[in-house]
Amino acid sequence: MIKLERVSKTFVSKNKEVQALKEVSLEVKKGEIFGVIGYSGAGKSTLIRCVNLLERPTSGKVWVDGTELTALSSAKLRDVRKKIGMIFQGFNLLKTATVYENIAIPLKLAGLPSSEVERRVKEYVSVVGLDDKLEHYPSQLSGGQKQRVAIARALAHEPEVLLSDEATSALDPETTDSILELLLKINRQFNITILLITHEMHVIQKVCDRVAVMENGQVIEEGRVFEIFTHPQHSITKKFVNSLFNEEVPEAVVDRLQATGPIITLSFVGESAGDPALAEVSKRFDVYPNILSGQITQLKDKPFGRLVVHLKGDESQTQQAIQYLLSRGIKVEGTVLDAGKEVAVNG
Ligand SMILES: Nc1ncnc2c1ncn2[C@@H]1O[C@H](COP(=O)(O)OP(=O)(O)OP(=O)(O)O)[C@@H](O)[C@H]1O
């Protein structure tokens, strides 16, 4: 549905060159919610703006719905862009226009007859749950409601693709969740492909099927969300995943426990995978697992859990227990044995 092939973008300002994108290739499938995450300056905005050619790549090709946008004339590009809706962090609403007008004006400009304009405004304002706000002005709406208007405005063009440029970054956590729920609903109801950029792992966790991690103008890691959560490879990806978990164990406790066995972190997908495996460990080996911290969080379609566990037992028994956990498909990391000796166990 969306395909970027070796897309590069170089900005030149004050005789200085900035390579914002370096040969980025990506494919987003029809009906998928695909997230791009990265820290500030990684190139996310440039990337998403290259998809509808708000920013023209310096080199490389961009396809949307089978059409190569980078090969089109301006007139044809205008046509294809109708298939691509976009929402922004700052909502970009007309302040002096009502909710109705904000959605209707671009439809009128696109040449739709007024009966169709009215039908679409009413339909999509209802999809975003703002039927009672048609005559309100943006200043009379909350941030979340403004973003709902922007979403209705984008949907009213009945696009194939929705691009979301940090759409929830200006919102509080609760409102963020309600907007993410709305994106999920839209994706399911209309089978719209969504490409979003964000710097928050929570957004990826809640709605995305696949994710690409960007750093320095490049995609450094890419995969299905649960794969990335359970097996992050790059240090930045690990940092993003860790940002969702608060599992610090006080140093004094670590010091005391390490004398009697390793402290390990288990990652697993599926609600029940962690606890039963630990129960098995205590049955099969001369090892006593003690959970120091634990959290189960919901990925888009499956639960994902992390447990920090102390395995009390001698080295041979705890190593066998770790091998057993690995064999059950659980990722085991960060073991520290007595005397602070690091043991690599990569699941
Ligand atoms: N119009 C421009 N002119 C010059 N440099 C630019 C321009 N737009 C972006 N850049 C530079 O390109 C790099 C990538 O910027 P970009 O905005 O794409 O990153 P980002 O990941 O979206 O960051 P943020 O989350 O802070 O917006 C940065 O170094 C930025 O300064």
TrEMBL record:
Record's Gene3D superfamilies?
Answer: 3.30.70.260, P-loop containing nucleotide triphosphate hydrolases
Positions of the ABC transporter domain: 2-241
The transmembrane segments are none
Look up keyword Transport and say if it applies: yes
Q: Which CDD domains match?
A: ABC_MetN_methionine_transporter
Keyword Glycosyltransferase, does the record have it? no
> What InterPro entries does the annotation carry?
AAA+_ATPase, ABC_transporter-like_ATP-bd, ABC_transporter-like_CS, ACT-like_dom_sf, MetN_ABC, MetN_ABC_transporter-like, NIL_domain, P-loop_NTPase
Q: Which UniProt keywords apply?
A: Amino-acid transport, ATP-binding, Cell membrane, Membrane, Nucleotide-binding, Translocase, Transport
User: By its UniProt entry, which SUPFAM superfamilies does this protein fall under?
Assistant: ACT-like, P-loop containing nucleoside triphosphate hydrolases
Q: Which Pfam families match?
A: ABC_tran, NIL
- Gene Ontology molecular function terms on file: ATP binding
Instruction: Report the protein name in the record.
Output: D-methionine transport system ATP-binding protein
- To which species is this protein native? Caldalkalibacillus uzonensis
